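Below is one protein, fold included:
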Amino acid sequence: MPFLVLLPPSEGKADAPEGAPVELGALSLPGLTAARGRVLDALVELCRGDEDTAAEVLGLSKGLRGEISRNAGLRTAGTLPAGELYTGVLYDALGLAKLDQAAYARAERSVLVFSGLWGAVRLSDRIPAYRCSGGVKLPPLGALGAYWRRETAEVLPAEADGLVLDLRSSAYAASWKPAGELIGRTATVRVLQEKDGKRSVVSHFNKATKGRLVRDLLNSGAEPSTPGELLDVLGGLGYTVEVAAQGTARKPWQLDVVVTEIH
């Protein structure tokens, strides 16, 4: 696998049609199957119990109480491929449905979407709509970031034999941290908006730019194997990219993408 792109999920999700429910054993990364089952059981049990408790654990406002009943029915709910299920700014900018066949094949091979419920999935994995963020402390499993970090430690390094482009938000970055020599092949990205000579981090620009960056990278057919090669590729695609910190034996590369507007 030439490179791996790590994405966060989105809170917004498409409504899956009625049909066959999720098959945990059919999902990619089979080493996570048992761990997924434990989280699924705990989430369903929580949401079949006291509604106020479930809302507090999941951080849901009154307007989102309907997510509790949806979670309670996850075992029998219909599914969609993850690439169709996740919506929102990043996924709108990524525009998976608009990729040509070759670019979409690269996306299916290269992209991993991290999740509080599933750990990590590929775009073709069929899953139901759910509500469970990576920052949740889910009884009796505890903090999901720490839970998944233990479970992914042995599974995910086998998926990464090239560049790792880590575009996850902090809640999901806790679910797996590259270790050993893999750290030197990992690049994180911060998006800065430049306006009136000043730079700042703006959430909308961050998400949209990351989605557009992945789309352009997939469309280009380029397969960078190191952070240095990634710098060259992104520069050739018209991005202004600066090295905020070079990678070390303990820390990945940190790249800044500077934007003035969203296309």
